[in-house]
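Pipeline run #58 for the internal structure catalog. This entry was flagged by the ingest filter as a single-chain record with no existing model, so it goes straight to prediction. Upstream metadata was stripped on purpose; only the residue string is passed forward. Reviewer on rotation: M.T. Logging verbosity set to normal.
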Amino acid sequence: MTRETDLYLPIKSFLEAQGYEVKAEVASADVVACRDGEDPLIIEMKTGFALALFHQGIARQAVSDWVYVAVPRGTGRAFQKALAENTRLARRLSLGLLTVRLPDGLVEAHADPGPYEPRKSARKRATLLREFARRQGDPNLGGTRGRIMTAYRQDAMACAAHLAAHGPCKGAAVKAATGVARATTIMRDDHYGWFVKVETGVYCLTEKGTCDLADGQDASGAAK
């Protein structure tokens, strides 16, 4: 069973190779390293990623700007995902992050302490604002898991409701009546199995569409 102390000697050797003098358990810090009058370098260790590890790291920032957190390096996709997510978290908190490969003592730095400057995604911002603007009302509860009401689904339901009331219609007529600018595309793509083309440019509602519209849901469960 892995213990926090298993991390210490590999980390000590890693830092000593860089000219640090290293001591353990100094004033509540797991590891403290000093070099040539520089600010002390502090490392907090845990046997796995945990909120308490980051709490400890933040607390040590009251002493030094050079604070790292360290965990054993695991294997498999689950660990790789956790490593990526926690590396981002460490950077946001201006903490460094180390992993230790216990079989051979390899220490790797995945993040170093420093100011966090996140890069904004113009594409993701545009997608978020477009969905916000298109969605009618506020049909969901925050924290909902699984099927949610999206703007795409609302538009598809509006098209389906029009066909249910008026029978087969041209896409242009559905667009004009519902105000759904992408009505023809929605019916043509038919992500929910609600629509069928009966002739060029004309669509009608399927039996599945009639049932799902009555239930106020789509059976795919997919958010569009």
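catalog note: The radius of gyration is 28 Å.
catalog note: Residues 149-215 form a domain with the Arc Repressor Mutant, subunit A fold (CATH 1.10.10.10).
status: ready for reviewer M.T.
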